[in-house]
Amino acid sequence: MLKKILNGIMAIAVCVVGLSGCGESQPEEVVMPEIVFVIAFQYPGVQKYVTDTFEGTAGYYITKEGEMRYFEIDITNNKELFEKQDYITMYDYAEILNINEIHPKITENSFDTEFEDISVEELVKKYKMLSKVRSSTKLEYMANSFCASYGATYVYGVKLNKDKQEEYILIADYDDTFFYKSNNEITKELANYLHEKFPIWSANSFIHLENKLKEK
Asked: Is 129 buried (19+), middle (13-18) or exposed (0-12) by CB count in 10 A?
């Protein structure tokens, strides 16, 4: 009898210490990539960006800690080489925008800014939304039917797949010539959200922005 009582006490202790209470579900751990959301700007030819003059890409990104950072990189996209199709996938469009080459180098020439951070709790919610969008999602070709910006602007999110590899999900794209549009409701909602968070949305307005870089 004493042995049974001791065994019962031990079982309760394991529940309390190991699980902080039997039957209670543990908080879901969300693992995010180092960079979660990016807005990128590209002008045709050599341009003066915030810190340097070059032909390439500049923009802002939001880290998994919610920090807003600025970047510059001397790589452009492949749009001028692309044969337009009625429909392509997000995966294909990431190739056209050259995100696979640009993204891994974003942090090499990036800068702290004084723009407002985003709370991690809020960022996790948006990342969970992003994670539901597949890179196989179809995008519809759209000839430019409005007076777009001088150059190109595109916004994408970064998610980790089941193999912990990064996938790039297009959220919005604006270009002088053509772009692809997603009818996915999640990316539409994320576009509206990020429109309020990123300091600027149009390449045409980029040169007029007070970039608020922190002095090193």
From this structure: middle
* pLDDT given at position 48: 86
Structure-token pair, residue 52: 């340097």
Tokens, residue 88: 């392509």
145 DSSP 8-state letter:
-
CA 110 to chain CA centroid, Å, is: 15
H/E stretch holding 6: helix 2-19
Tell me, what's the pLDDT at 194?
A: 96
Task: Over range 8-23, report the average pLDDT.
Answer: 44
Q: Is the pLDDT of residue 196 over 90?
A: yes
* Residue in 89, 78, 101, 90 with CA at minimum distance from that of residue 175: 78
Q: What integer is the mean pLDDT of 100-105? A: 94
Distance CA(212)–CA(36), nearest Å, equals 21
CA distance readout (Å), 100 to 64, 72, 95, 187, 210: 19, 16, 6, 20, 29
